[in-house]
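Sequence design from tokenized structure. All designs in this work follow the same two-part layout: the structure record, then the generated sequence. An example of the structure record is given first.
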């Protein structure tokens, strides 16, 4: 289970320690990597997240958040359908940026 520990330099923030830091998966060769995008809409906010899924040769899997973006929904009272379209565009732009930066092939993007 993840534990939160206060960071010494700034007591208002917390650092999460990953349970995978003590495993040997980081020394194992990488078999494949995939980018996964997720988005969600609330009446007042839009959320987009890009995850990196790494499969190692020893069959272990590691999942990491690469980038996340949130936005306030417009105050005009847009429909949920319109907000879902807006957040899909948000995730597509995040994915495009990360794909270019990390040089990921299209076949590894979901």
């Amino acid at each position: 289970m993840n534990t939160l520990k206060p960071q010494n330099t700034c007591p208002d923030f917390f650092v999460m320690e990953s349970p995978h830091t003590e495993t040997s998966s980081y020394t194992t060769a990488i078999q494949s990597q995939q980018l996964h995008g997720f988005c969600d809409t609330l009446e007042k906010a839009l959320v987009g997240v890009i995850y990196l899924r790494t499969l190692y040769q020893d069959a272990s899997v590691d999942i990491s958040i690469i980038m996340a973006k949130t936005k306030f929904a417009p105050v005009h009272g847009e429909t949920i359908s319109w907000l879902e379209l807006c957040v899909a565009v948000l995730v597509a732009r995040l994915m495009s940026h990360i794909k270019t930066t990390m040089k990921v092939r299209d076949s590894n993007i979901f």
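The chain has one helix and five strands. We note this feature because it recurs in several other targets discussed in the main text.
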